[in-house]
Every structure is written in C-alpha cells, then in structure tokens.
C-alpha cells in the first residue's frame, strides 16, 4: 500500500505484480472499496503490474464532506494522479466497474495518451446515457418508451440516494446485508463507504443529464455486459458504438457484481483484451463467433458449415472421414479435424486442441449420425450398439465436453443437436433410428433446462425427408447385400423426389441459434407430424404401421 495525493485528498493505493509489466489500473464502484477487485487482481498480477485504489469517500482514502468534491472532474484528477504515480512512463490499462467505470469514461474521453485501453463493466458514461434517453424520448415509439421506462425502473435507487436523511438511515439499518444476500455477495458493503459514496450521485447525476456533451474516444474499449444486471439494462448501451469506434462488446453470464462473483472470468476477458492491445495477435477477432460442426463432411453438416461461414463466423468442421472434412473446409476457408464422435477421449483431445488454437466454441452443432432401417427383430445387438454410439452417445460427448467449456468461460453459447422428425413420428421401419433420435430430442430438452443458468441455449433440429448422402449409407437389416443396395437406391429416389435440400435445414439451424428455439421442425411433414404427435397421437400410432417389409 502507498498513499497518493490528489489535491487535498489522499488516496490509498494497492499494488501487486512486477512493475516492469504493463500496468492495469482497477477502479471500483459504489458502494465498494478496492477489495472488490481482490479475486481479479490476484489473477492478473501473474502477468501484469496491478494497481487498485480506494476512490475518494471509500476505504482508507480521504472522505470529503462537501458534495461538490465528488464531481466528475475531481474523480478524473484522482485517476490520473494514481496513474502518474504508479506508471509515470507508460500508459495504463483501465479496468473499471459501476461508478468506477462512470468516472473512468471521462478520463478515457479526455483525449489523453495516459490510457492504453479501457475495459468497462456495468458503468455507462453519464453523457452517453443522457443522449440515449433524449433520442428515445424525441421519438416516443412503444419500443423507445419501454426501454426508457425499463431503465428508470432499474435506476430506482438514485432517487432514494438524493434524500440524505432517509438514504443514510436505510444503510445504517442494514440495507447492505439485504443487498449482499440478494446479489449473493460474500460480504456486505461497509456502511461508511455506502453513506459517503452517495455523494457521487448527488454531485453528478442530474448535472450530467442536463449538460451532457459528446464524449468520444479512439482508445480501444472493451464493454463487458452482465446478462442479469439489476441496475443497468442492456439497451442502455446500444448507442455506445457511435461515440467509440474502437469497441468490443462481450457478454458475461452473471449479475451486477460479476467481478466479485466470477473473478476468473473477468480476469481472463481483461487479459485477452489487454494482451491484444499490447500487440499479441488474438486467436480470433473480438465479436466473431466460433462454430464447431460435427459430421460436416457432407449433407446437412456441410451446408450448415457453409451457412455459418456466410454469417461471417469462424467455422471448424469435423468428420470421421477427414478427406471429406477437408473438402468442406476448403469450400469456406475453415479448419478441418478428424473426429470419431463415439470416442470420448478423442473428443476431449480435440477440444484441448481447439481451445489452444482457436478458443472455446460459441456454437456447437452435434450433427454426426447414421441410419439403420428394418424390422426390430432383425436389428441385432451390434446394430443397436452402433447406432446408439453414434446418434446418442456422440451427441452426449459433444454436449458434455463443449458444454463444460462454455459454462467455464462465462460467456454462454449455444448447442444445436440434430435429431429428426422420426423422434416423434414412430415407424415400424425405423425402430433403432427413431429411438436414438427421440433420445436426442429428450436429452436436448433436459440440457436446455440444465444449461440455462450458464447462458447456454440448446436447440433440437427435427428435419423430415431431406435429400442427403445418408440414404446411400443407410444399413437395411434382415436383407442380403443385393436387396440392401436396391433399398438404398429406392430410398435415394424417394428423398430426391421430395426435393428438400440440406441447405434449408442449415438455414433453420442458423436461425435456431439466433432465436434460441427449443424444438425446430424443418420440413412440412416434420411440422405437421409434430402437431399431430401433440394433438392427435392416435393418428401417429396408426401411421407408424406403414413401413417396408424386408
């Protein structure tokens, strides 16, 4: 710890890490002090010189009595005073939260060369907020009014903080403990920090709303947006790109105090951004999705890979046939890997390689599958084991391995499991195939509920008759080889006559990620079949008797 003077105020400053390394300056919000950053600071200190400080009115720093002493210019002077003291010859990287971020915006937009980058969490620039609100009230459409009202409801506490006696009494009667319980914090805010910090609101909120000016910056800014923030609505940040051209937007699954609740996630995001600004090439462009598709050597998998590539995503294609995977990759400029989805060990090894070379996928499409047709009594145990391993266990492996990685990153993601209309349209001709696809559909519904808290969406895609190469590879049980070849040709002609291309399934897959829809029937027969399965199951049972005898 050391003390840094800023005018008449003494600021308590805390340092970790080697001062030779780039300096990361942590600025806490209200009603916190520097200890809010402890989990983040200890992790960043491995690679950086990490500095945090108690802002005026908090912790061991001076607590001015006059409300005017908490105005934005004073706070900006404090930030620069600390930066000059701890890193006099090199710009600092600022990481700020809540009110720490609000005040840091004005340092960042001052045109200074003292700041190398800015990572902001749950703390918009007040002038940006003023323009955001004016623009929506100038065009009072239902959507604009709803956004303004929503933010006003998020900001209810600001009016309370402008009533000195009541607000002070609320804190002294234990509101901090209630807040800590609601937000899941390990400790309640210090009452003295909360009481003195309310002057931040009284000194700045209404004044900045009235006299807002354009606040622009060319400094690289990373805006981390918690998905469950009770105090800052996501719409409040929609207009920021017009003032900050060099902007990266990232979501994090969590609430307002995500730096304290998920320090490893915030430290990783900050490190990725800062090292990029310092000159280290990033594994992929910020804001660009990484998509993994299994069974991408042909059919639906290949078209899905092409569809995501057209969206501008970085695509990784896998297939047990590495030659076909490379053909798909060559079409779209992707990276190909060989993968047997039934081999959990191989799946984990591939995941390690992908994380090291590209990062954690944002979207995983579990598409690999096979088809076995024919009567139940002619389907051997070996046949059952094979189709269960590929169609079900292969999906389970993909969900387990990559779902765990998505949850760990804290940024959410989406898993698409390709099932089939056969999942809810039983047929005496497809007992094994239907059973595995029904299992995939049921699994997807369970995972959707399980993964929701981690911000991971799960969609089950249920195509009907789609013309893909799977018909040429279908195993027909209980027949000789010549009959099997004839049945494959017959199936291929039927699916070709249906004329539904895999590209339309791919379009539905891309859309399902955007809409986070749980079950997506694709073809007309799949949609009608889903309707009948829910409202006329007797008809579905009668239709199940239709099949091709061996």
From TrEMBL:
Which residue ranges run through the membrane? none
Q: Do you know which PROSITE patterns this protein is assigned to?
A: ADH_SHORT
Q: Can you give the residue ranges of the AB hydrolase-1 domain?
A: 22-258
- Read off the InterPro entries from this record: AB_hydrolase_1, AB_hydrolase_fold, NAD(P)-bd_dom_sf, Sc_DH/Rdtase_CS, SDR_fam
Is the S-adenosyl-L-methionine keyword given for this protein? no
What SUPFAM superfamilies does this protein's entry cite?
alpha/beta-Hydrolases, NAD(P)-binding Rossmann-fold domains
Question: Known PANTHER family for this protein?
Answer: OXIDOREDUCTASE EPHD-RELATED, RETINOL DEHYDROGENASE-RELATED
Recorded hits in NCBIfam families, A to Z, give:
PRK05855.1
Similarity comment text for this entry: Belongs to the short-chain dehydrogenases/reductases (SDR) family.
Name listed for the protein in its UniProt record: SDR family oxidoreductase
Organism expressing this protein natively:
Kibdelosporangium philippinense
- Taxonomic lineage from the root: Bacteria, Bacillati, Actinomycetota, Actinomycetes, Pseudonocardiales
């Amino acid at each position: 710890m050391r003390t840094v003077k800023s005018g008449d105020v003494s600021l308590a400053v805390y340092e970790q890490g080697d001062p030779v390394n780039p300096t990361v300056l942590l600025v806490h919000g209200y009603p916190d002090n520097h200890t809010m950053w402890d989990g983040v600071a200890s992790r960043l200190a491995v690679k950086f010189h990490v500095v945090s400080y108690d802002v005026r009115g908090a912790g061991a720093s001076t607590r001015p009595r006059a409300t005017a002493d908490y105005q934005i210019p004073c706070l900006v002077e404090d930030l620069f005073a600390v930066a000059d003291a701890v890193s006099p010859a090199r710009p600092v990287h600022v990481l700020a939260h809540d009110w720490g971020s609000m005040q840091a915006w004005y340092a960042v937009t001052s045109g200074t060369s003292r700041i190398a980058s800015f990572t902001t969490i749950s703390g918009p620039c007040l002038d940006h907020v003023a323009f955001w609100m004016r623009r929506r009230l100038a065009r009072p459409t239902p959507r604009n009014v709803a956004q303004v009202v929503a933010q006003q409801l998020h900001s209810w506490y600001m009016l309370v903080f402008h009533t000195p006696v009541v607000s002070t009494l609320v804190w002294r009667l234990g509101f901090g403990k209630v807040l800590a319980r609601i937000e899941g914090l390990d400790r309640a805010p210090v009452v003295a920090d909360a009481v003195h910090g309310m002057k931040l609101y009284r000194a700045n909120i209404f004044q900045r709303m009235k006299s807002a000016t354009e606040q622009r910056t060319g400094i690289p800014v990373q805006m981390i947006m918690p998905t469950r923030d009770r105090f800052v609505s996501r719409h409040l940040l929609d207009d920021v790109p017009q003032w900050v051209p060099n902007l990266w937007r990232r979501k994090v699954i969590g609430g307002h105090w995500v730096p304290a609740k998920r320090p490893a996630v915030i430290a990783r995001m900050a490190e990725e951004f800062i090292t990029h600004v310092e000159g280290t090439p990033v594994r992929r462009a910020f804001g660009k999705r990484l998509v993994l598709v299994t069974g991408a050597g042909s059919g639906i998998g290949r078209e899905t890979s092409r569809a995501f590539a057209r969206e501008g995503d970085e695509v990784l294609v896998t297939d047990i046939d590495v030659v076909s995977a490379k053909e798909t990759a060559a079409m779209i400029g992707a990276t190909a890997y060989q993968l047997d989805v039934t081999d959990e060990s191989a799946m984990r090894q591939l995941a390690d390689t992908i994380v090291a070379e590209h990062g954690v996928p944002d979207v995983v499409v579990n598409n690999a599958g096979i088809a076995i047709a024919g009567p139940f009594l002619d389907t051997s145990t070996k046949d059952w084991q094979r189709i269960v391993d590929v169609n079900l266990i292969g999906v389970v492996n993909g969900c387990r391995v990559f779902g765990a990685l998505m949850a760990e990153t804290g940024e959410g993601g989406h898993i698409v499991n390709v099932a089939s209309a056969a999942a809810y349209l039983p047929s005496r001709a497809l007992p094994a195939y239907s059973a595995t696809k029904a299992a995939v559909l049921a699994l997807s519904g369970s995972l959707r509920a399980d993964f929701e808290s981690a911000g991971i969406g799960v969609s089950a895609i249920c195509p009907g008759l789609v013309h893909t190469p799977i018909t040429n590879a279908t195993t027909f049980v209980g027949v000789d080889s010549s009959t099997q070849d004839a049945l494959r040709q017959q199936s291929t002609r039927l699916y070709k006559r249906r004329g539904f291309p895999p590209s339309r399934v791919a379009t539905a897959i891309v859309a399902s990620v955007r809409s986070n829809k749980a079950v997506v029937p694709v073809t007309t027969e799949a949609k009608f079949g889903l309707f009948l399965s829910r409202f006329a199951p007797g008809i579905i049972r009668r239709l199940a008797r239709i099949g091709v005898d061996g």
